[in-house]
Amino acid sequence: MTLVPSHPAAAKTCTLKLVDALAATKEILLIGIKLLEKHLIILGIRGVPAAHGGFESFAERLAPWMVERGWQVTIYCQGSATGRRYEDTWQGCRRVHVPIRAQGALGTIEFDVKSTIDAMRQNAVLLTLGYNTGFLSAYVRVRKRRNIINMDGVEWRRAKYNKIQKAYLWINERLAAASGNVLIADHPEIARHHASHVRSDKIRMIPYGGEAVCSADKDLLSRFDVEIDSFFTVIARPEPENSLFEIVRSFSRKRRNARLVVLGEYAIGNAYQAKVLSAASDEVIFPGAIYDQKLLHAFRLHSRAYIHGHQVGGTNPSLVEALGAGNAVIAHDNAFNRWVAGNAGCYFTNEDECETQIESLLHDGVAIHEMRNEARQRWSENFTWERVLTDYHYLLESAL
User: Fold this and answer.
1) DSSP string for 66-96
2) CB-hemisphere CA count at 13 Å for 101?
3) Sheet harboring 259-263: ordered strands across?
4) Which residues of 43-62 are buried (b: 16+ CB within 10 A; e: fewer)?
5) Which terminus of the chain has a smaller tally of CB atoms within 10 A, N or C?
6) What's the pLDDT score for residue 318?
7) What residue spans of 203-292 are helical by DSSP H?
């Protein structure tokens, strides 16, 4: 029995069909291999769901987004309830729980080292959030893995760090910048900063995102002794570069018949935090750290304005979230805050100017209305999660 017809024309036709079939099979196999390669590993965070900071909240949104678009996503989580490495699934994502022995910063370094070594055993695109262990990015580069790094802010400029810590962060920033295949800057100023020491064509600018807050239960605020539209909110870590002392003292200079709500964990035992507490009048309240999203939405939506004292950083999540809630903004005057808030903000460089802006917005309803409209517009044009996650998806697809 012959497989190919003896007639020349028939044989030629059969051969062409066989070639076409093989070509189609090859294409299908290549597509299948490409799909198998759509594996994203997220490094640099403590895990999901978010319980620590902006990067965790971002990963909590990005990971399911990528899963819905056909990607396998692996996220490493710091610590293990069992004391041993184990895996589970969260919203379609693979979580790897890594036990650690050290505490504090050393524990984070131990976790990053273990996670990175484990990630090297897999064929995946890496997304590293932050550069605090940038020396590991150099190791990844030596192993010839594709590594996209979100370079966060200029961490070594923060006042809370001593000289040794700043030197460590500076070195790791440069190692990460040199080693990453693509660097993500979340702010034009961050992009300009890194363009001074790496090729500008390896930098992509993608800001942080925030959600819209259009409604919130005002009754949730009843226990805090605040009146709707008669209080200002501050949401920030109590650290010197966030201007908490200056904001509290400027608000407390005189009676205002309004409230300043300062969210965050404050303790007398911490020298800076104690200074902030001692500067507060009885119109300033400290409800503590609040993570309940419904309550946070209520504070944002029903406040007179949001005060943002951050002096360094990129696209700060708290400021973006204020824009999403349509907040008028009083912000420290620097290039980071001005680009994010734009005309939704009024700005200060010292306590006198901060008090002037507070007093002005307390009594100028027209300005408040205009700034709130600007905030919504600024958010919708630049900081929606859909836009931010779409940009990440496109970047990660191109990394394949």
Assistant:
1) HHHTT-EEEEEEE--TTSS-EEEEETTEEEE
2) 1
3) 284-288, 259-263, 231-235, 305-308, 329-332, 345-348
4) bbbbbbebeeebbbbbbbbb
5) N
6) 93
7) 244-251, 271-279
HSE (side-chain half, CA atoms, 13 Å) at 247: 30
pLDDT at 390: 97
User: In whole angstroms, what is the distance from residue 337 CA to residue 27 CA?
Assistant: 49
Predicted TM-score (pTM) of this structure: 0.84
Mode of pairing for the β-strands spanning 93-98 and 86-90: antiparallel
Closest CA to 80 of 101, 59, 52, 64: 101
Q: Which residue has the tokens 């620097």?
A: 334
pLDDT along the chain (400 residues), means of 10: 53 55 52 64 89 82 96 94 91 95 90 95 95 92 94 83 91 94 95 94 95 94 94 94 96 96 94 96 95 93 97 90 97 96 97 97 96 97 96 93
Phi, psi of 295, deg, nearest 5: -70, -40
Please report, as a single letter, which amino acid is at residue 351: E
